[in-house]
Amino acid sequence: xxxxxxxxxxxxxxxxxxxxxxxxxxxxxxxxxxxxxxxxxxxxxxxxxxxxxxxxxxxxxxxxxxxxxxxxxxxxxxxxxxxxxxxxxxxxxxxxxxxxxxxxxxxxxxxxxxxxxxxxxxxxxxxxxxxxxxxxxxxxxxxxxxxxxxxxxxxxxxxxxxxxxxxxxxxxxxxxxxxxxxxxxxxxxxxxxxxxxxxxxxxxxxxxxxxxxxxxxxxxxxxxxxxxxxxxxxxxxxxxxxxxxxxxxxxxxxxxxxxxxxxxxxxxxxxxxxxxxxxxxxxxxxxxxxxxxxxxxxxxxxxxxxxxxxxxxxxxxxxxxxxxxxxxxxxxxxxxxxxxxxxxxxxxxxxxxxxxxxxxxxxxxxxxxxxxxxxxxxxxxxxxxxxxxxxxxxxxxxxxxxxxxxxxxxxxxxxxxxxxxxxxxxxxxxxxxxxxxxxxxxxxxxxxxxxxxxxxxxxxxxxxxxxxxxxxxx
Length: 474
Ligand SMILES: Nc1ncnc2c1ncn2[C@@H]1O[C@H](COP(=O)(O)OP(=O)(O)O)[C@@H](O)[C@H]1O
Ligand SMILES: [Mg+2]
What we know:
By secondary structure, this protein is an alpha+beta fold. The protein has helices at 2-8, 15-37, 43-79, 94-130, 149-155, 164-167, 171-181, 227-262, 269-301, 313-323, 325-330, 350-367, 411-414, 425-429, 438-448, and strands spanning 135-138, 144-147, 187-193, 201-208, 219-225, 310-311, 334-339, 346-347, 373-381, 397-404, 452-458, 462-470. The strands form three sheets. A five-stranded antiparallel sheet has the order 2-1-5-4-3, sandwiched between helices. A five-stranded mixed sheet has the order 7-9-10-12-11. It has a two-stranded antiparallel ribbon with strand order 6-8.
């Protein structure tokens, strides 16, 4: 058994073996020298006996040395990550066995710890990767030691090999970072425009990690894309500015006339009559402006509420057309509604659809050719055309096309028609009344219904606004 083991073992030269034999034999050598000196033993017998002692020690130490060597190789293999089993060595020496077992249990403990740490690291990375905002970890020198998925997407896969100052070379960023790294501050907040994408405004929160935290990261940078909210803020500010401007114009007209009536035209009967008419017109315009603004904000508040009520589009369109008959007559126009058979009911907000078609028909009657007929065609289409708004659904839809004759709307105007307060200059010059909010309201109603609104306009065929409303909403 022992010999077989020796053969199996890839022997390394055990330099300590010879030393151990010599040290063990040293006291016997002294005894033999003493015996020779006292002439109790001849040098020949002393030498012979010493050789025997050496042979005995050699044989005595060999198994022990062999086992030590086995243990040594076993530890070496473990250190190199090879899986080894201490029992396979069949150690006969109790102490060697104990050493091997101690090493074995230490190895098992560390292997378990490593597994645990690995699992923890994997789950931490997975959690960080699910976060929608970019997160960076940095060390004491400002080097990025970790980045979650959205940070890598924003700043590139190689972001972890770079210094954070290279990526955000903005003075106020670097100063804030240095305050954190020099332990002068716990947290810093700032915003900046990305130099790689100047439209992107980012908000950064830099937070120092507790200094006793182990590992290399000493601070975490969380980034938030605030471009959208900046745009929304700007839109809101623009909207308020536009709305106040639109309201101020009729108001100043009214105040002007009041002043004239109080002073120069005080006793002019005719002027008073004309001025009061103008003032009434302006007051009416103001009230429709306010009404439109209120309904726009109401629709926007409901934008994400899905309409569920089953609604009859054909009925709503026909009733709206009838209600506008008087207006049509005033321009010697007619409205003709044609519906394909069996138009299904759709989930929709009836009151909003009424408002939508009222706006489109009102426009067709206002801006269409006097004396012509406005054609409304209702049908079901198998596929709603794709829309730029992310809310539009695909698939079957009810389509309502409102067509009027009249001059072509220029492409540059078409792209801006649904902007708030946008009106074509020609119509403003012709003094056609309007607030410029009707189509923005129409667009928002269509958005809420996950539908689509398209416009085509040519010189020969006139203008068609088509509303697509999905048969089912999601
Ligand atoms: N059917 C149409 N034909 C030609 N131009 C139109 C038509 N509908 C709308 N427009 C243009 O689009 C502008 C915006 O329409 P809208 O938002 O309804 O505002 P309003 O009708 O109050 O002016 C109108 O001022 C007009 O210039
Ligand atoms: Mg209008």
